[in-house]
Amino acid sequence: MTEAPAQSEAPTPAGPPVRRGRAGAGAGRLAALLVSPTLLVLTVVVLYPTLMALKESLYGAKGLDPATGFISDTEPFVGLGNYAEIFGDAGARFWNAFWNTTFFTVVTVGLETVIGVAMALIMHKAFKGRGLVRAGILVPWAVPTAISGLLWRWIFNSDGVANALLGQQILWTTEGVHAKVAVIVAEVWKTAPFIGLLVLAGLQVIPTEVYEAARMDGARAARRFWHITLPLVKPALLVAVLFRCMDALRMFDLPYILVGAQKHSVETLSMLAQNEASNVRFGPASAYAVILFLYVFLIALAFVRLLGADLVGGGRAGRRRRTEVTA
Predict the structure, then answer these.
(1) All residues at 6 or more sequence positions from 318 whose CB lies less than 8 Å from its CB, including other chains
(2) DSSP secondary-structure letter at 174?
(3) Which of 96, 46, 50, 108 has the alpha carbon at shortest distance from 254?
(4) CB atoms within 10 A of CB 32
(5) pTM
(6) Which of 25, 178, 187, 260 has its CA 20 to 30 A from that of 12?
(7) Residue 321 pLDDT more than 50?
(8) Whole-angstrom distance, CA of residue 311 vs CA of residue 169
(9) Three-class SS string for the chain?
(10) DSSP strand pairing (63-64 vs 71-72)
């Protein structure tokens, strides 16, 4: 018997993979070229100042050197001394500013979320004069914060509109709970339209057929809101809340203009850092700025880690819908 000749393997064409690899490399180079201006701007605007603040926080203020007894023209290196002082002798003022910052963030963002969603639902309705209502709602957000602070300072003045409406003589811009209330009202008035604008963008992409099907099934308005509107608008709402949290944690100009500097009841971490810098204590000021940066970074990181899938609409419900559509 004669053996059958061994079958030779067909040669694999090498052309398409090479072309595909070259195309992928070309696309990667193009993407890097397009992103490089943004990375350069972020490096100059964010990374470099952050590193310089971190370096400055390791130095003390110019003045009398306790070791030699002479006046020093250069800033002495103190290492982590500024941070130790913050959590030591200056701890009371730091923790007060920390809790004020956290309190303002939680309360204002919570109120802005509720009011912003209500604004978005109103602006989404089809009625006569809707364009005028949308423009009127967005006006507070367009007003600069400094102008808004001055406006509300006049309103909360001792003989201002607020006391005239309440019929009482309340010193809103002094120490105490009244100062906190004034800052919260002014902040919510200004930034609630921002959340409303982002939620409105999410509402406009919801198909009307979904609501029509729910009405045919007998779902009422409250049920449609909780089971249709809120889940579908959740990615836009979470992005708005994330942006507002990061902005509120850095609150400075509104309480500074509305109430004033060095007010125990409204002093935030940003105001504390500015006060140290204005007194030519750049080391402690940089230490406060670094701690604030880490605080904002950790809050943003936790927010993205816990709710990152929902920020882009990629949660379990989104994956389940994509699986059903693919099947």
Answers:
(1) 309
(2) S
(3) 108
(4) 10
(5) 0.78
(6) 25
(7) no
(8) 46
(9) CCCCCCCCCCCCCCHHHHHHHHHHHHHHHHHHHHHHHHHHHHHHHHHHHHHHHHHHCCECCCEECCCCCCEECCCCECCCHHHHHHCCCCHHHHHHHHHHHHHHHHHHHHHHHHHHHHHHHHHHCCCCCHHHHHHHHHHHHHCCHHHHHHHHHHHCCCCCHHHHHHCCCCCCCCCCHHHHHHHHHHHHHHHHHHHHHHHHHHHCCCCHHHHHHHHHCCCCHHHHHHHHHHHHHHHHHHHHHHHHHHHHHCCCHHHHHHCCCCCCCCCCHHHHHHHHHHCCCHHHHHHHHHHHHHHHHHHHHHHHHHHHHHHCCCCHHHHHHHHHHHC
(10) antiparallel
**H or E stretch at 72:** strand 71-72
Q: Residue 151: CB partners within 8 Å, gap ≥ 6?
A: 143
Query: In this model, does residue 152 exceed pLDDT 90?
Result: yes
Q: Are 96 and 267 in contact (CB under 8 A)?
A: yes
- Average pLDDT taken over every residue of the chain: 81
- 133: tokens are 């209502």
